[in-house]
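Fold this: Micrococcal nuclease
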Amino acid sequence: MIHLTGHQYLYSMKRLLILTSFIALFAFKASAQTTIPAKDAAKHIGETVTICDKVYGTKLLDGPNITFLDLGGAHPNQELTLVIKGEDRSKFTGKPEVDYKDKNICVTGVLVDFKGKPEIVVSDPSQIKLAADDSKK
């Protein structure tokens, strides 16, 4: 059994507290997401972000059943494209191309570059929330 003096015990506890605080701060920082405007999406490729903006245009490709939502402008001038793949559409209770059109939404996900344009692949409805001004409509 190891016996510590009062001073050694306080020193050990202080080190433990500092280490625990550092780990907690790092974990919080790693899980925090950045909120950015759609116009800045291209500057954050590879990052997990939240973007709030209006859905200006939508499109459903019937064959592969892929949904596109255009934020920050209508296609081809959108600032960001959201993509909902066919296998993920069944997770939505309605039709995303209808339900979100002309609505202000917030989306959270990883920004990727697709042919020079920023894109977020939405695999779960929880990634999209109606913005406060549209949630009451």
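Confidence is low (pLDDT under 50) at residues 24-31. The radius of gyration is 22 Å.
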